[in-house]
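Final report, section 2: Outcomes. Of the targets proposed, HTH gntR-type domain-containing protein is the one most frequently requested by collaborating groups, and we therefore present its record in full.
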Amino acid sequence: MEKQFKYIRLYKEIRRDIVEGRYRFQEKMPSKRILSDTMGVSLLTVEHCYALLEEEGYIEGRERSGYFVSYQDGLLFPVEEKEDPVQALSEIPGQGKEEMSFSIISKTIRKVLGKYGEELLRRSEAQGKYFLRTALKDYLRRARGIFVTEEQILIGSGAEHLYSLLAQILGRGQSFAVESPSYEKMQKIYEANGIELEFLEMGKKGIHSEALRKAKSRILHVTPFHSYPSGVTATAGKRREYLDYARRKNGFIIEDDYDSEFSALGKPEDSLFSMDERNSVYYINSFSKTIGPAFRMAYLLLPKERVEEDLQKISIYSCSVPVLEQCLLTELLQGGEFERHINRIKRRRRNSATF
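The predicted structure is given below as tokens.
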């Protein structure tokens, strides 16, 4: 744990230096050995730090030349080199061998039946059981660096259900800008709810800056981590461009954070929600990838200053998730089984990665 703490601490320090301009765009970074000697840390710590910075788009490695700063402040809207169109991947969301084991689920369900008793028969609050929202709030704080209150959390039966609620919260008849390519079912749900879609071409770092500059929609739906079906993860600079987009348009961002828990390098991805200072980001995540495709539960985080207004717009709806499943997820979060599962998968992915 100490080794991990050191490289995360070094990562944060260098990231701050890059963002604040002490290392400028295209400037060469210190060699691994020099940085190791200067900071008094091991070479392995520096290697892990640089790998993390490179994965998030702050630096880029050049063969036989070292590492160079690739981050530009999103406010600059850098001109990107023309890239080949992003090719769609063939896999389907929810497939794979990484879902939680049946033995853990069955053991936890037996515990839930004995612990919660008649609570399982009581109606859920419209936003989801308060104790589940508390457990989820605590998990987001310690594991994801996201700070919210229970009132900001809304539980729903899958991301598709939450897309429909967001269409009503943000207003039917609106135009949403979406990635191209992007999740086809999401597109169809928005269109079924009277939303007009504006497609923005994806590059290897995220949506092309030129497409963002020309877009007319006030609302931007993005998947910054492992966008489906392209597999693209937006760089740090690109994420700041997305936030600046909302600022310029006086609009909003819907952050679809599918699969982000499984980042192989052991550090939570920086979410747009946690970076946002304007109360302009709505955050969606689900458990279909982390627990299993049959576990139809997702959650929506509302901007703090918009909670009362937004909940009033959807006040006619009851919670769409059975209480038994809410109690099951509460136990997985509070008992640590969920995080142990995530860490197992991350170790497996990390072992297959090259630093």
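The chain is about 40% helix and 15% strand.
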